[in-house]
Design brief:
five-stranded antiparallel sheet, C8orf32 fold, Immunoglobulin-like, 367 residues
Length: 367
């Protein structure tokens, strides 16, 4: 797969274009998140496995991120007709409730209750401050490769071409963001949130996907350009207060509202929220649908989603390549959906006929 000069310059040209957009977005009153009042939500995940045979296990992700400026999570609680315990991935600290049922339990069930507090984020990228630098261990973790997000080969080659001529880390991060927005598309046919196999995307030239693909591409390209970056796996929990139907939960039932976001660490600013996948979601889904990149709704989203998030969303974890405790089954590229397996197989978390779960959200504080 090769990219011609015109394609690679799309991102750089877009940087100067988008620099002039803040006044347009603010004039429309659209998608301009700012820190304000904290909101509190209760999330209930109920999982049922019908006609279970033999030893059955489940792993339910729980919020395990605590960032004082925008997200806090309380210890989760659960009820089950089996045994359950809270476990954590040793590398990233991703939390999950691990439930187990004996051979005689043919109708396993577990209900997990989590409470989170959220606040919108907005980083003033014109005013760097005195943010603490990442530790050497954190920098190594968030610039390293994962199984699906390599930082060498075609990923490194592509990143080098994209950031050529960019001076500061902020310029590099923004140029990669604009390139990803320009060159990807949301593919409604992709199951779930996608896989995030970015080398295959670049080699094939098919840069379509969903959030776990598009935002993983951003993370991989940023890491390959020596910028610490990470995916944040989570779930939409409320409608967008800015009126974007595509960027919020449509009802109290949020079983299919999983969404991966991303962050890049920049000296003077700390972790900066980034979400090119949602720009592409707005373009595809926001009424009347199939909007062009110069549509005002897309322009406002594109401007906002480098440096800010509306936090009508919870963060589960930052984890990759997760070995689920208690099983020899395959690793997960990421943990954003409940998982389960019987004695004979790992169940398909996207198949409601064999694996039923319901996730609901309720706000506990007034808006």
């Amino acid at each position: 797969m090769t990219f011609n000069r015109r394609d690679l310059l799309k991102g750089g040209a877009a940087v100067s274009l988008v620099a002039g957009l803040p006044r347009l977005a603010m004039a429309q009153g659209a998608l301009a998140p700012q820190p304000g009042a904290w909101r509190e939500f209760q999330i209930v995940t109920r999982l049922e496995i019908e006609n279970a045979k033999g030893k059955t296990q489940a792993w339910i992700p729980v919020p395990s991120v605590n960032e004082k400026d925008w997200f806090t999570s309380s210890p989760s609680q659960w009820m089950t007709n089996g045994k359950a315990a809270l476990r954590h991935d040793p590398k990233y600290g991703a939390g999950m409730v691990h439930a187990q049922w004996g051979d005689d339990q043919t109708a396993p069930v577990i209900e997990v209750i989590s409470v989170v507090k959220v606040q919108d984020r907005a980083i003033d990228l014109s005013k760097p401050g005195k943010m603490a630098a990442l530790s050497a261990a954190e920098r190594k973790l968030y610039t390293g490769s994962t199984e699906l997000i390599p930082t060498d080969g075609i990923v490194k080659e592509t990143a080098d071409k994209i950031v050529k001529g960019a001076g500061t880390d902020l310029e590099k991060a923004r140029t990669i963001y604009e390139w990803v927005v320009e060159n990807t598309f949301r593919d409604a046919k992709v199951r779930g949130c996608g896989i995030g196999d970015i080398a295959s995307m670049l080699k094939s030239g098919n840069l379509g996907g969903k959030c776990a693909d598009i935002n993983a591409l951003y993370v991989g390209l940023a890491r390959a350009a020596d910028l610490p970056a990470r995916d944040v796996y989570g779930l939409r929990i409320a409608p967008s207060k800015f009126g974007y139907k595509s960027l919020g939960a449509g009802s109290a039932v949020i079983s299919k509202a999983q969404h991966c976001r991303s962050e890049v660490y920049l000296a003077g600013f700390g972790w900066v929220p980034v979400d090119p996948a949602d720009v592409r979601k707005v373009a595809l889904e926001e009424p009347p649908a199939n909007l062009q990149l110069d549509d005002p709704k897309v322009v406002a989203a594109r401007n906002a989603l480098f440096g800010s998030w509306e936090t009508n969303w919870l963060a589960y974890n930052f984890a990759h390549d997760i070995a689920l405790p208690g099983t020899n089954g395959p690793k997960l590229g990421f943990l954003m959906y409940p998982q389960a397996e019987t004695a004979s197989m790992r169940l398909d978390c996207l198949d409601p006929d064999t694996f039923k779960y319901t996730i609901t959200s309720k706000e506990l504080t007034a808006r």
